[in-house]
Amino acid sequence: MNEGSVYKFIELVGTSPRSWEDAVQIVVSTASKSLRDMRIAEVKELDARIENNKIVEYRVKVGISFKYEKESD
Fold first, then answer.
1. What is the mean pLDDT of residues 51-68?
2. pTM (2 decimals)?
3. Is a pLDDT exceeding 70 seen at residue 73?
4. Which residues, listed in sequence order, are joined to residue 6 by a DSSP beta bridge?
5. Is residue 51 assigned to a domain?
6. Which range of residues forms the domain containing residue 36?
7. Domain count, the chain
8. Each residue of 30-39: pLDDT tens digit?
């Protein structure tokens, strides 16, 4: 019998001096080093840090879902 699947959801914040898209890629790339079987990256929030009337940093809040693996008994 198929028991189905469970997915965990976490939120991460990424930054980039270039773009929001680059900040999302940084989140996914960094998360992939410690998470397996990621499924969805959902952009939740965008903002930018401003200095001297110029954008100096793009920031994104990203929800990442990945398959939850049951601990061995």
1. 96
2. 0.83
3. no
4. none
5. yes
6. 7-67
7. 1
8. 999 999 999 9
Please check whether residue 27 lies inside any domain of the structure.
Answer: yes
- At 70, which helix (H) or strand (E)? none
The 3-state secondary structure of the chain reads: CCCCCCEEEEEEEEEECCCHHHHHHHHHHHHCCCCCCEEEEEEEEEEEEEECCEEEEEEEEEEEEEECCCCCC
Does position 25 have pLDDT exceeding 70, yes or no? yes
Residue at 55: amino acid letter: I
Q: Are 59 and 50 in contact (CB under 8 A)?
A: no
In a domain, 73, yes or no: no
